[in-house]
Amino acid sequence: MSADIGLIGLAVMGENLVLNMEKNGFVVAVFNRTLSKVDDFVNGRAKGLKVIGTHSLEEFVSKLKKPRRVMVMVRAGDAVDKIIEMLLPLLSKGDIIIDGGNSYFEDTTRRTKELEAKGMMFVGAGVSGGEEGALNGPSIMPGGTKGAWKEIGPIFQAIAAKVKEGVPCCEWVGDGGAGHYVKMVHNGHEYSCCQAIAEAYWVMKEGLGMSNEEMSGVFSEWNLGKLESYLIEITAQILSKKDEQGTYVIDYILDKAGQKGTGKWTVMSALELGVPVTLVSEAVFARCLSYQKEDRVFASNIFTGPREPFKVDQKQFLNDLHDSLYASFLVSCAQCFVLMGAAGSRYKWDIDYAAVAHMWRGGCIIRSSYLENIFQAFQLNPALSNLMFDHFFSSEIQKCSPGWRRVVAATSKSGVAIPVISSGLSYYDGLRAASGPANLIQAQRDYFGAHTYERLDRNAGQYFHTDWTGHGGSTHSQAYNI
Q1: Alpha carbon of 221 to those of 228, 232, 236, 319, 397: distances in Å?
Q2: Spans of all domains in the chain
Q3: What is the pTM of this model?
Q4: CA angle 351, 356, 361 (to 5 degrees)
Q5: Whole-number Cα distances in Å, 18 to 38, 310, 479
């Protein structure tokens, strides 16, 4: 029996992808560096299935049909390069290596070029959906060597999540690192959504004094409307979950949030491209602050401030909180699509943004009802520069803004930190301001560094310098932006 595809790395995601592929009619060869995991899997979850266990890379490769398709599910970084290095002597021209982990997109671009120079093909495929998605249908975002798509597309689209008349949440994204870039931005948006939901939970708990069951009920209700999404759904379940002793699990989880790097990479790329992804960056820094637990405990004993329940009508305030969370989701998504647009221009990726919205509509962690509206917005206008300029998004955000402002004001007065939700409102207000205070910054830069400035009453691209002190002269720096 020959395998249609091989997979290296039998952790939870790897195992579940194999079972998904087999369930969809594909024969899969598997290998893991710890050989006992191969035997445990083949004799356990995969027993009796069309899964071929192998005990060496040589045996693994020998079981694959040509062109050989090898999917690597190992930790991002050096581990991927080491696996590729070991595979290369065993593969032939036309064979395909697929990295299904969360690799940095520039590493994927490099690997694509290196393998193409050897006559082989490389694909960086972002896979989202966690272990449940991997087993039952993830969102898959592949990019790399375009010629590989016709060989791997039927497999990936068969195992991907399906929405709207069976359309798979998987489509070719673009050359080089495009697939992993889109997955990186997906994860960045996930960071902001998780943090915004956590802020809403904390407002209910600290500001409104609500119980876990009450909060779970609110999130369950919200999941029936505009906020319908995977993350809202699981939040409701998390808040009501009790352990064997009958106590709420959430109350005993240490408030230190970990991260694996994709959120940080999103912010780094945004800084490089000059795109404000303020909600993602606030979410990343919120996780960093959460990790400073000892400092926060110390600070709580030396800094005083307001800390009392809100004096508000609870029903109305929950409606406001709903609107502030919904608006924050929309603004974060808009920022992320602007970032992908800038990256597409910089790296010459021809990304179909409607297709990206569709890929995120099912299977992935950020799947939500409003992604259908994003799909429609880009179908209507593929050149849309900012989703907030689309009629649906502009009208929804404006409807939410009064409640959004009331929530930010109330939390500020009561000393409850909501960095992502408040950052979203600041971005909205900054975006809608035709004029802003940056003229003063330019004056400051020209004063201390002779960096020059443009004038409102002159043509764009003309730069001027003022001798602010009367003894600085006319010499100035060259105008440039990083």
Answers
A1: 9, 10, 9, 11, 20
A2: 5-176, 183-431, 437-482
A3: 0.93
A4: 175
A5: 12, 51, 55
Q: What is the chain's Cα-based Rg?
A: 25
| Active-site choice (15, 151, 171, 190) | 190
Query: How many Å apart are CA 367 and CA 229, to the nearest integer?
Result: 6
- Is residue 183 among the annotated active site residues? yes
In this structure, which CATH number among 1.20.5.320, 1.10.3720.10, 3.90.550.10, 1.10.150.130 belongs to the domain 437-482? 1.20.5.320
Map tokens 């971005």 to a residue: 427
Looking at 183, 205, 226, 264, which residue is catalytic? 183
Q: Where are the alpha helices (DSSP H) in 73-174?
A: 78-87, 105-117, 130-136, 149-159
Summarised one tens digit per residue, pLDDT across range 65-124 is 999 999 999 998 999 999 999 999 999 999 999 999 999 999 999 999 999 999 999 999
CATH of span 5-176: 3.40.50.720
Angle at 337 between CA 335 and CA 340, to 5 degrees: 115
What is the C-alpha to C-alpha distance for residues 6 and 85, in angstroms, rounded to an integer?
17
pLDDT per position as a tens digit, 239-271: 999 999 999 999 999 999 988 889 999 999 999
Residue 15 annotated to the active site: no
